Each structure stands twice: as C-alpha cells, then as structure tokens.
C-alpha cells in the first residue's frame, strides 16, 4: 500500500476510479486466502497509522484523515522470482477465487469507509499515482 496525494485507474484511456489522497492498495490474493484474511487486511488498511499528526509523526490512519482508499487487484504481487529470469505465478490464487475475494473486499471496504474506489479485476489497467513521502508499506496478514 502506498500513501498518495492522488491516484487513479484508467482502462482504455478512460478513468474508472480516482481518489484525491489517501491509500493506493495493490492487492494480491493467495490460494489459502479467505474472507477472514480479507477482513483482517481491511482492518489493517483502514487502521494502519501512516499519516502525519500535527507534530509530523505517523500517528493517524486513513479513516481519521478522511482520505480515500483505492483497491487495485494485482496478481503479479504473488510472483515467485527465486529462479530464472521469468516470474512464476503459481502462488497466486486461481482467477475465479481471486475475483470473488477481491470483489467481496471492495464491497466490505465500501461499507466500512466513505471514500472507496477500486480497479477492475482482470482488466489491463493503467495506474497513476503521486506517492506522498514516499511511503510504501508491504502489509501482510
């Protein structure tokens, strides 16, 4: 996840999702992930304190700042790069399982936070962002 000043997702040169500022969350799903994993991840995304307070310390979360959350499905995060010169994606969940869990995660996030946007599973997306900090955190459950 990245703290951003702004982020957007476009498909075929048409913007399909945008946040003014907050968190861009590139989301990889493994075969063993389920709703409890996704819910715990959402709790962490919404509660993780990486926004500055008045003293300039990272003590605030995206909910406290009123920032947006842009969820983007990204199976390439699951790449195994330990061998050879081409990534293997055998550690990514099967497409239908990943789609179902990502869509559930998006719906659940929208119920828990006011400003949620998301990319389109399986689409060729162009993601634009202005990283704030830069702050980039690998968040795992």
TrEMBL record:
<dbReference type="GO" id="GO:0106026">
    <property type="term" value="F:Gly-tRNA(Ala) deacylase activity"/>
</dbReference>
<keyword id="KW-0820">tRNA-binding</keyword>
<keyword id="KW-0378">Hydrolase</keyword>
<dbReference type="GO" id="GO:0019478">
    <property type="term" value="P:D-amino acid catabolic process"/>
</dbReference>
<comment type="function">
    <text>An aminoacyl-tRNA editing enzyme that deacylates mischarged D-aminoacyl-tRNAs. Also deacylates mischarged glycyl-tRNA(Ala), protecting cells against glycine mischarging by AlaRS. Acts via tRNA-based rather than protein-based catalysis; rejects L-amino acids rather than detecting D-amino acids in the active site. By recycling D-aminoacyl-tRNA to D-amino acids and free tRNA molecules, this enzyme counteracts the toxicity associated with the formation of D-aminoacyl-tRNA entities in vivo and helps enforce protein L-homochirality.</text>
</comment>
<dbReference type="Pfam" id="PF02580">
    <property type="entry name" value="Tyr_Deacylase"/>
</dbReference>
<comment type="subunit">
    <text>Homodimer.</text>
</comment>
<feature type="short sequence motif" description="Gly-cisPro motif, important for rejection of L-amino acids">
    <location>
        <begin position="133"/>
        <end position="134"/>
    </location>
</feature>
<dbReference type="GO" id="GO:0005737">
    <property type="term" value="C:cytoplasm"/>
</dbReference>
<keyword id="KW-0694">RNA-binding</keyword>
<protein>
    <recommendedName>
        <fullName>D-aminoacyl-tRNA deacylase</fullName>
        <ecNumber>3.1.1.96</ecNumber>
        <ecNumber>3.1.1.-</ecNumber>
    </recommendedName>
</protein>
<dbReference type="GO" id="GO:0000049">
    <property type="term" value="F:tRNA binding"/>
</dbReference>
<dbReference type="GO" id="GO:0051500">
    <property type="term" value="F:D-tyrosyl-tRNA(Tyr) deacylase activity"/>
</dbReference>
<keyword id="KW-0963">Cytoplasm</keyword>
<dbReference type="InterPro" id="IPR023509">
    <property type="entry name" value="DTD-like_sf"/>
</dbReference>
<comment type="similarity">
    <text>Belongs to the DTD family.</text>
</comment>
<dbReference type="GO" id="GO:0043908">
    <property type="term" value="F:Ser(Gly)-tRNA(Ala) hydrolase activity"/>
</dbReference>
<dbReference type="InterPro" id="IPR003732">
    <property type="entry name" value="Daa-tRNA_deacyls_DTD"/>
</dbReference>
């Amino acid at each position: 996840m990245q703290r951003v000043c702004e982020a957007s997702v476009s498909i075929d040169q048409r913007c399909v999702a945008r946040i003014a500022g907050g968190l861009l969350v590139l989301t990889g799903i493994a075969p063993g992930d389920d709703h409890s994993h996704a819910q715990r991840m959402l709790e962490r995304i919404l509660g993780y304190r990486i926004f500055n307070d008045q003293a300039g310390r990272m003590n605030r979360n995206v909910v406290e700042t009123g920032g947006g959350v842009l969820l983007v499905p990204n199976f390439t995060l699951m790449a195994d790069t330990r061998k050879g010169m081409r990534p293997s994606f055998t550690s990514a969940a099967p497409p239908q399982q990943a789609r179902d869990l990502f869509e559930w995660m998006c719906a659940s996030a929208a119920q828990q936070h006011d400003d949620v946007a998301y990319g389109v599973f399986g689409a060729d997306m162009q993601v634009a962002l202005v990283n704030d900090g830069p702050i980039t955190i690998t968040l795992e459950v």
